[in-house]
Amino acid sequence: MSVTTNLFRHVDQTEEFSAGQSIFSEGEYGAVMYVVLDGEVNLIDHSGSITEVVMPGGMFGEMALIDAKPRSLSAVARTNCKLAAVDRQRFSFMVTETPYFALHVMQVMAERLRRRGG
Fold it and tell me: pTM of the predicted model, to two decimals?
């Protein structure tokens, strides 16, 4: 079980998206990151290419909580999905109280940067 799956397995507040539905668009400002509880999410760059498919236990949108800049990718539900939304307050609490969560977020960001050539 992944760090995020374990931390969010009993979350009460979730959002559901239908296959093909936009979760957020590149250039928007974000107030939440998401953890995939069920389903799959496509992360799409400005050219329309899928850069990653986020599976259950995966997270996306975390950069908006770290640097408060516009979203660098779009997120679209690949399948019907159930997501846990994490706002800044909860994110800050989890980073402070759960060091493994903070490390996991850094690992996810590092992997994405490497894939994008950053």
Answer: 0.86
